[in-house]
Amino acid sequence: MVDVLVAADALVRLFGGGRTWLGRRVPVVRAVDGVSFWVRHGETLGVVGESGSGKSTLARMLVGLLAPSAGHLSVAGRPVRGLAGVEAVRFHRAVQMVFQDPVSSLNPRKTVRQILEGPVQVLLGAGRAERRDRVARILDLVGLRPEFLERYPHEFSGGQAQRIGLARALVVEPELLVLDEPVSALDVSIQAQVLTLLRDLQTRLGLTYVFISHDLAVIEALCDRVLVMRDGRVVETGPCRTVFRAPQHAYTRSLMAAVPVVRQAIRVCTP
Ligand SMILES: Nc1ncnc2c1ncn2[C@@H]1O[C@H](COP(=O)(O)OP(=O)(O)OP(=O)(O)O)[C@@H](O)[C@H]1O
Ligand SMILES: [Mg+2]
Q: Residues lining ligand 1, judged by CB closer than 6 Å?
């Protein structure tokens, strides 16, 4: 399929298997255990599952922070494994990640300007004028004021810090954003604002999202298709509407039984 941006085939990631310094065996954890999926340009794939189901491990493989133990992953038709030099720079520009805890994912010793200019310099090799221009434009796009540039991460609320995290990811103009529980640490009303912003940015910038959450209401509000994960495996997948209307797997039904209050807030804030 020509419009496929991400293709994952039988991805596996193991942890453990060695010994501790006292010689005790560390059991093998199959954090991701044979996961296959694809993501089309411009769509949002939701990944949902309870704690420990392998969502973050999958996310870290997608952005190249973790190497798969087995399986195959490609982005824009290029294999992700063993990238170096120009190819690695191109990949890290195309694929960016937004983390769960907005404040601790930002370097506390750097100003917002330094945080945002860093990736522009490293990945685009841009000079001072272009860095300043990109940073000013992205800050406006995520709804933050220019005077924030000279402040430090601890001076911001959770919602503002997550907007900075988003700006850091978007400033290099990626194609794919992998969002690992981007609103879970925020208050419900702020969650709705950030989700609305994400939806708006996707339309304006033509972005593709992999959106991870343990919260089905958030997934339902934002995603086109969904992967339901349990113990490192995909138990159910399909268009959001189909999966939510008629879940085939008992595990999906049990996740749906716990629908949190955020659903209401998202409906109020989004068209
Ligand atoms: N670096 C690591 N070393 C050892 N085990 C790990 C490591 N990272 C993850 N795991 C294990 O892999 C499994 C999947 O973890 P992962 O963090 O991917 O789950 P998750 O779905 O993101 O959970 P949560 O909803 O709590 O964020 C868990 O059993 C976890 O303990
Ligand atoms: Mg996680």
A: 15-16, 29, 31, 49, 51-57, 214
User: Would you say the pTM of this structure is higher than 0.70?
Assistant: yes
**Which candidate, 102, 105, 177, places its Cα nearest to that of 144?**
102
Same domain, 183 and 271: yes
pLDDT, tens digit, for every residue of 89-143? 999 999 999 999 888 889 999 999 999 999 999 898 889 999 999 999 999 999 9
Pair 186, 149 in one domain:
no
Q: From ligand 2's centre to the CA of 125, what distance in Å?
A: 32
* Co-location of 236 and 161 in the same domain: no
Supply the DSSP string of 95-106, one letter for each residue: EEEE-S-TTTTS
Interval between CA 49 and ligand 1 midpoint (Å): 12
Query: Measured between alpha carbons, how far is 159 from 102 in angstroms, rounded to an integer?
Result: 8
- How many domains does the chain fold into? 2
Q: In the numeric block, which tokens belong to residue 221? A: 């509000």
Ligand 1 atom 10 nearest Cα: 31
Nearest CA to ligand 1 atom 17: 56
3-state SS assignment for residue 74: strand
